[in-house]
Design goal:
mainly alpha, Rna Polymerase Sigma Factor, Chain: A, 8 helices, disordered N terminus
């Protein structure tokens, strides 16, 4: 079942078979998205479950926009569900994974870590594992900026901190990933 099929009034009244088909078609990629934010499979599966329930409950509200797709709409729901879980978890733990000093640090937008290492040396699973190992704050900003194309202003608004904090978290995430990639590169050559 694709987004075009869901445009008709009949498809909006999802039968159990249609829900199953929708889940089977989209769950793997949505789980991967959730895993990038959550950092572990258990939390990612919880977010996938909660997000999928939101999708089913609000499927009647989906309206195809000029450049919007049904898959993009579902991804946005999963990103928001992931962010909500991270916020809830930080409230439970009464701390955020964000360095309180970063607001005082002025950093540059780009630090040239994007072109540092040949990505052909690494499998998608290796890179995903490295992203999942990032601290929660770094991982969240990295995912929102790199994979979801949020601006620093949008990230700051969504996570309730300054744009400089977003920039700093992204810079630190990239530096940490670069270090991990370099360590893996050394392992591969020895």
């Amino acid at each position: 079942m694709n987004g075009n099929e869901l445009q008709s009034k009949e498809a909006i009244r999802l039968t159990p078979d249609a829900v199953k088909l929708l889940y089977e078609e989209h769950a793997p990629s949505l789980l991967s998205l959730c895993l990038r934010y959550c950092g572990n499979i258990e939390d990612a599966e919880d977010v996938l479950h909660d997000g999928f329930i939101k999708i089913i409950k609000s499927i009647h509200t989906f309206k195809k926009k000029e450049n919007g797709s049904f898959t993009g709409w579902m991804k946005r729901i999963m990103v928001n569900t992931s962010l909500n879980q991270l916020r809830d978890r930080s409230k439970e733990n009464k701390f955020l994974d964000i360095d309180p000093l970063v607001e005082k640090i002025s950093i540059e937008e780009e630090d040239e870590t994007d072109s540092m290492i040949n990505p052909d040396r690494f499998t998608q699973e290796m890179i995903m594992k490295m992203i999942c190992e990032l601290p929660s704050g770094y991982r969240t900003v990295f995912n929102m900026y790199v994979f979801e194309d949020y601006s620093h202003r949008e990230i700051a608004a969504a996570l309730n901190f300054s744009e400089n904090t977003s920039k700093s978290q992204l810079s630190k995430a990239r530096a940490m990933l670069k270090k991990k990639l370099n360590q893996e590169k050394i392992k591969q050559t020895t």
